[in-house]
Each structure stands twice: as C-alpha cells, then as structure tokens.
Design a protein that fits this description.
single chain
Length: 192
C-alpha cells in the first residue's frame, strides 16, 4: 500500500512539473510553482520522517498518512485547476481544513510510532495537543509561503488579512477534528 501511495505522489508531481513546463495544457488560477513546491515539500517531509522513524527502530508513517497527504495536495491543486478558489469562497476553507487535519495526522502518527517502538512515553492527551500545536505552526508556515509567492511573483494567494486568519482557524479546526478522531480510535484499541 505504501508503494502505491509513493507512486501516486510521484505521478501527481510529474503532472504538475509537466504542466509548469507547458508540456501538458493545464492552466491554473495561481501558479504551478507554488503547487510543485508544496507537493514536493510534503512528499519529501513524509519520506524524511519515515526514514527517521526507521532509524529509531519505529515503523514508517502509515500508508494512509501518505494517501491523506496526497489527497490534501490534490484538493489544493484541483482548486487551482478548476478555478474553485475564485468561484467558491468556501473551497479555500475546505482546503485549509483538510490541510490542517493531514498535518495533525502526520505528527500524531510520528509520535504514536515512536511510542510503540519504546522511544518516547507520552500520555495520549499530550500526543493530541502536540499534534494540534504542530499543525498550527506548520499552517502558519504555509501562510508565509503564500505571502512569499505574492511578493516574488505578484500573485494574490494571501488574499486579505481576514482570509489569512480564516485559513489559520480552519487549519486548527481540521487538526482538532483529526486528532479527536484518532484519539478515540487509539483509546479504544488500547482498551481492547
């Protein structure tokens, strides 16, 4: 399953690069470079985390974590390709909700695998808090990436101050929903 997720990630980034190079005739609302940087960064981060976990005697990130991360990247790209960001104000909110939930999943998955390998000992509640706080921090970095893209390329990814605050709020809500769900599943598995 992990191999399938990796092939899918690589295939999607290839489509983005070919579109950026104008080999494929797909146009966007914003920029291909922003999507390529985000998708490549996400995949590289997942691979680095997985390798780091293996070096510490833990399992790699779950295949589902890779798949959710790819789904998040596709949600962003489809919003650009099909002009959903400009047509529907709620689409950006959905994308940030999904992004925040995936970030929290990656962090929770990392901590959980380290605990299962005996490398850390944290209460389950602290796993959830660290996952939410980490997702909030990384969501803030994404907003800085949007700002940089606007400054360097003259795009309008940042929108206004309300949009930025709304994006950060929905990243946080997505993270909370994800860790709440994971927390219940893990708690149930530990009791049985």
């Amino acid at each position: 399953m992990l191999v399938v997720a990796r092939v899918a990630f690589g295939s999607w980034i290839t489509v983005e690069v070919l579109s950026w190079a104008k080999v494929l005739p797909i146009t966007l609302e914003f920029t291909w470079l922003g999507l390529i940087i985000t998708a490549s960064g996400a995949w590289i981060a997942l691979e680095i985390i997985s390798a780091w976990l293996r070096r510490r005697g833990a399992q790699s990130l779950w295949a589902g974590t890779f798949i959710f991360a790819l789904a998040s990247q596709c949600t962003d790209a489809f919003g650009d390709i099909f002009r959903l960001y400009g047509s529907y104000a709620w689409y950006d909110q959905v994308a940030h909700f999904v992004g925040g939930s995936v970030l929290a999943l990656v962090i929770f998955n990392t901590l959980y695998n380290l605990e299962k390998a005996g490398r850390v000992k944290l209460p389950l509640g602290l796993h959830t808090l660290l996952s939410v706080f980490g997702a909030m921090a990384i969501g803030s970095l994404y907003e800085l990436e949007e700002y940089s893209e606007d400054v360097l390329f003259g795009s309008n990814r940042m929108g206004n101050a309300f949009d930025t605050g709304n994006d950060m709020l929905l990243n946080t809500i997505g993270a909370c929903v994800m860790v709440f769900g994971i927390w219940h599943v893990v708690k149930k598995l530990r009791l049985t």
